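Record 1 of the preview.
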Amino acid sequence: MKRLTCKFVALFGLLTLLALFPRPGLASEREVIQFTGQGSTQTETFHVPSGWGIHWEADGPIFQVLVHSSIGDLPMVGFSQEEGKRGFLMQFVGGEFYLKVHSPSNWTIRVVEILGP
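->
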């Protein structure tokens, strides 16, 4: 039992690392929707299948995004970064979502469906 638990933890850790640090070129993408703005806002609701992601670019000192399911008010996941640049966040569960963006600067978010290699 201990050996099985260790393998599960190792696999879960690997999947988490792959989600946080995806390697470009391993999968193709289809853009679902793009949001561009300056300052804080709540996006319109969008639908995505299982296996999707968020690409972002921001040029300000701080950038925060909270992912909300359309059926709940509490965020499912969120991320923030200082000294904006760009990044990617992989999501595994599909459904209806909206984003709450908090930033004093210009930003662009692309929501994509991951199609596979």
